[in-house]
Amino acid sequence: MAQRKGCLIGCGVALVVGIGIVIALFFGFSKVLDIADKTLVDPKVYAQVAVGDPEPEVRAKLPSGETFVKDALKKGGPAEPAGSTCAWYVSTATSGDDVLRFCFKDGRLADKAQYAMK
């Protein structure tokens, strides 16, 4: 009887751990999809917009960019123009290590930069 009870407890623990791992994998996968949805920009969009374009028109072509990886994307880039608000994205180009930065000031695109992710 004691062996059977120990076996049931062991199986129960293994089941709970297994379910926990599946949940963690699902959560991780959903975070990766979230990042992709909010930070990936086609290089064609970068090429289409020009400094001086109205901010609403440029932002309409971009995803939100609000993810926890934003701070990592800022590293290694050129200095932000004074008084501007910037947004960082990952290029969908084949290398996948380019950062596309768009900075806005006074309702217009003030600067755009492309640089390698550090």
Question: What does this protein look like?
Answer:
With 118 residues, this protein is an alpha+beta fold. 47% of the residues lie in helices and 22% in strands. The protein contains 4 helices and 4 strands; from the N terminus they run αβαααβββ. It has a 4-stranded mixed β-sheet with strand order 1-2-3-4. A hairpin with a 2-residue loop joins strand 3 and strand 4. The longest helix has 38 residues. The chain is rod-shaped and about 75 Å long. About 5% of the residues have low confidence.
List the helices and strands and how they pair.
Blueprint: H1 2-39, E1 40-41, H2 43-48, H3 55-60, H4 70-74, E2 85-91, E3 98-105, E4 108-116
Parallel strand pairs: 1-2
Antiparallel strand pairs: 2-3, 3-4
What is the multimeric organization of the chains shown? single chain
Gyration radius (Cα, Å) is 22 Å
Number of distinct helices: 4
- Biggest sheet features: 4 strands, mixed
Binned strand content: 15-25%
Question: Any low-confidence stretches, pLDDT <50, length ≥5?
Answer: 29-34
How much is the average pLDDT? Answer: 78
The helix-and-strand class reads: alpha+beta
